[in-house]
Design goal:
Distance between the termini: 81 Å
Number of helices: 9
Radius of gyration: 20 Å
Number of strands: 0
Length: about 200
């Protein structure tokens, strides 16, 4: 005689990784980036550490998963913004999107700063961040080309440095470097850059 047991539930891996990313960001937002651990994230999810370690094995994996999910959201937001602007305005729109804080953006930014601070002891995280930085540079280069700048590489590199610097300056001294002030500086640079 065969006894029928309860079939194990199928788990949607994508949905589970999204929940883990959300829990990671919650822990970072409420307790600080140093508090992000496998145990803390599992507690936030209301389960044991195996709830997390079945999908992500290390703290680095937790952080990279959270940043990957934030990056996917940012990509969707950028595509939406670019679909609504003229080609000549795409670089300014990309810079605007990169500068302005939406929803929970400060938490991933804080995680990025932690990765940079620990690059020598967590090189795999720094390497992943370098890949993401390359994607942002490529987005800016494409936008500079579409916007018709005569030297799109130089303009994109300048805007990249300004956006990255503005992100850190805003965290360091938000009163002196609000996003609008940084965007105004980028506008002034783009106004004098030659177009085709």
């Amino acid at each position: 005689m065969v006894t029928l047991g309860v079939m194990p539930r199928e788990v949607d891996t994508t949905a589970r990784l999204r929940r883990i990313a959300d829990a990671t960001l919650t822990v970072a937002r409420e307790q600080g980036t140093r508090a992000v651990t496998l145990r803390a994230v599992a507690k936030e999810l209301g389960g044991s550490t195996t709830l997390v370690t079945n999908y992500l094995k290390t703290r680095a994996d937790l952080i990279l998963n959270a940043l990957d999910h934030a990056d996917a959201r940012w990509g969707e937001e950028l595509e939406d913004a670019l679909s609504r602007c003229a080609p000549a305005d795409r670089l300014l729109e990309t810079a605007t999107w990169a500068l302005f804080t939406r929803s929970d953006d400060m938490v991933p930014r804080a995680l990025i700063i932690e990765i940079l601070a620990n690059a020598t002891v967590e090189p795999e995280m720094a390497a992943n961040l370098a890949i993401e930085a390359g994607k942002v540079r490529n987005q800016l280069l494409t936008a500079a080309e579409e916007s018709g700048f005569r030297n799109p590489e130089a303009v994109a590199e300048t805007v990249y440095l300004m956006v990255r610097g503005a992100s850190f300056a805003n965290i360091e001294d938000a009163a002196h470097w609000p996003e609008e002030r940084a965007l105004d500086a980028i506008r002034r640079v783009l106004d004098v850059a030659e177009r085709v």
